Amino acid sequence: MSIRNLFAELARSQGETSVSVFMPIRDVPAQHKENALRLRALLDRARELGAEERVDPRTLTAILSPADALVRDEHYWQQAHDGGLALFLSSEGLRERRFPMPIEEFVLVKDRFCVRPLLPARVAQGRYYVLAFSRNAARFLACTRHGEQTIPL
Length: 153
Hints:
The protein has about 150 residues and is α+β, with helices and mostly antiparallel strands. Helices cover about 40% and strands about 35% of the residues. It has a four-stranded antiparallel sheet, with helices on both faces. Strands 5-6-7 form a three-stranded antiparallel sheet, with no helix packed on it. It is globular and about 55 Å long.
């Protein structure tokens, strides 16, 4: 699935318990176990956040079970490459996305997925626009990952 389609699908998904997990991954044999342990810690944090959000523990356990299985899957971690991993979990299952660039560690349990950390990857694939305001001026910019161009207002 393209990052564009994933972004749109996740942004539309609202109203049910959704868990977003972001983590950096190191592709060094000595780090494979460390990557799994980091995910385990993030899933524990998701359980804490779920309790704060008053999510039924059985529901949360069911939602997190595919990610719990990844923690135990040694082959999965041996296939890892340097970069980042994003996991999106809900009653519909697990959506996984790997990124070539590191992603800051982050967990969220809410009624919608967190898509903000996906923006750099989404932007890297095309053009985006910025409307910039200051006290004395406004500018409209067409941007790509290589630079920006001012569009006259």
